[in-house]
Design brief:
It contains twelve helices and no strands. The protein has 220 residues and is an all-alpha fold. The chain folds into two domains: 99 residues, Helix-hairpin-Helix base-excision DNA repair enzymes (C-terminal) (Endonuclease Iii, domain 2), CATH 1.10.1670; 102 residues, Endonuclease III, domain 1, CATH 1.10.340.
Length: 220
């Protein structure tokens, strides 16, 4: 198979985005939160687990520690008891408290609003930073590449990179900035409903004709 030209790949990427807009016009963050701080903690907790699992523990967590000030004074062991059903809960509990402490000590009690500053927070990588900046502040600096976005980008042959950070850079080269905001929310929904890791529903997929894997099924 000849290598796809970048101009053709960009056109295909835009076509995928337009289909996503039609199918998921109101895509939103699935995590439950009320403030930039609670969003930051929720996204931090969502690493290597599902949003639904996070939403089960955050009501109790945020009732007890609703602000950075309250969380900064928490004992990590007490936080761990609340979030123990999540993967890596002990490390996440430590990061929650350390994150809140840095917000209080270095940022005046407010979640920072720049990519550089927010990534200084313990437990906050670029994916978390992208989600928080986009969702809480309307600041679009990139595309949050979680497990769904990573898998779909590779399935669509939009990237062959071996890390989320490199995959994000490949997507940013394909998509104009005005498309960045919705990619994560839409692709997460798509990954749950169609491009499922263990049993993708390619035969029913609404972008099958734009996807190399889907095209193979159509030809059969």
């Amino acid at each position: 198979m000849p290598r796809e030209k970048m101009t053709d790949k960009r056109a295909r990427a835009i076509a995928v985005a337009e289909r996503m807009d039609q199918h998921y016009p109101q895509a939103e963050c699935a995590l439950h939160y009320t403030t930039p701080f609670t969003l930051t903690i929720a996204v931090l907790l969502s690493a290597q687990t599902t949003d639904a699992s996070v939403n089960k523990v955050t009501p109790q967590l945020f009732e007890r520690y609703p602000t950075a000030e309250a969380m900064a004074q928490a004992n990590p062991e007490d936080v761990a008891k609340i979030i123990h059903s999540l993967g890596f809960y002990r490390n996440k509990a430590k990061n929650c408290v350390a994150c809140a402490q840095m917000i209080m000590s270095d940022f005046g009690g407010e979640v920072p609003r720049t990519m550089e500053e927010i990534q200084k927070l313990p437990g906050v990588g670029r994916k978390t930073a992208n989600v928080v900046l986009n969702e809480a502040f309307g600041v679009v600096e990139g595309i949050a590449v979680d497990t769904h976005v990573f898998r779909i980008a590779h399935q669509l042959k939009f990237s062959s990179a071996d890390t989320p950070a490199k995959t994000e850079q490949d997507l940013l080269k394909l998509y104009p900035r005005e498309y960045w905001e919705q990619v994560n929310h839409q692709w997460v929904l798509f990954g749950r409903e169609y491009c499922i890791a263990r049993r993708p529903r390619c035969a029913e997929c609404f972008i099958a004709d734009l996807c190399p894997a889907g095209k193979k099924l159509i030809k059969q």
